[in-house]
Amino acid sequence: MSFFRNIVFTAILVGIVGGFAVSAMQAFGTTPLILKAETYENAGGEAPHSHDAPVTTGAAVPAHEHNEEAWAPADGFERTAYTLAANILTAIGYALVLTGLISLRGTNAGWREGLLWGVAGFAAVMLAPMIGLPPELPGSPAAALEARQIWWLSTVAATAGGIALIAFRREPWAIVLALVLIVAPHVAGAPLPPEGEHALAPLPLERQFIVAATVTSFVFWALLGTLSAFFLKRFQSA
């Protein structure tokens, strides 16, 4: 019983810390870029209140439709609170997976090994999928949501399996199979947006967002892995 209790307590604690940390990074990194992109989306690709700002000319309607009746949290405290809650729940979910795997590994891992687990999670969940589906700003064209979700889940599963084979099995067949798993989703290709559609936000803003999102994700996963191993070891030795 204490085995599962340690995992749950660790995941909750790590999730709260990780959720607050990533929310703080988003507040100064990705969120201002998203809000700026929304002004381009609402203006149909033209930057409001400035004739000198870059514009996206000839852009088609984005792949998603803007539904005025759809509910969304209000800007300010409400939006921040919902984002924080979502980040904490997401962090707890990922931390449950990490702490469960670390416990099953049975090596009494310290924070250094936890960091490696976090880097592996970043590679599987963020780095590999973003090769085909990079982080998107509002107003970016995209393929059907279901197709993107299926490809993302397949890529995460295949990459995680490949990393596990490389880390825990050193036989030649395992290395070959790992490489096949990691490469296969990209050979199949990510679902593409409809032809002729272009992002409404300018390209420099998109690139800045991708960099900010990638850095935020890396810090998030590094924290999850490090803290999961650290607190799990503390609970197990208590």
Structure description:
It holds the Pfam family CbtA. This is Cobalt transporter. InterPro entries: CbtA_put. Keywords: Membrane, Transmembrane, Transmembrane helix. The chain crosses the membrane at residues 7-28, 81-102, 114-131, 151-168, 173-189, 209-232. With 238 residues, the protein is mainly alpha-helical. The chain is built from seven helices and no strands. It has helices spanning 2-28, 30-42, 77-105, 111-132, 145-168, 172-188, 203-237. Residues 45-69 have low confidence and may be disordered.
Write the element-wise H/E pattern from the N-terminal end onward.
HHHHHHH
Mean pLDDT: 83
Strand pairing plus helix content: what structural class?
mainly alpha
- Helical run tally: 7
Protein name: Cobalt transporter
Keywords: Membrane, Transmembrane, Transmembrane helix
InterPro entries: CbtA_put (IPR012666)
Organism: Rhizobium nepotum 39/7
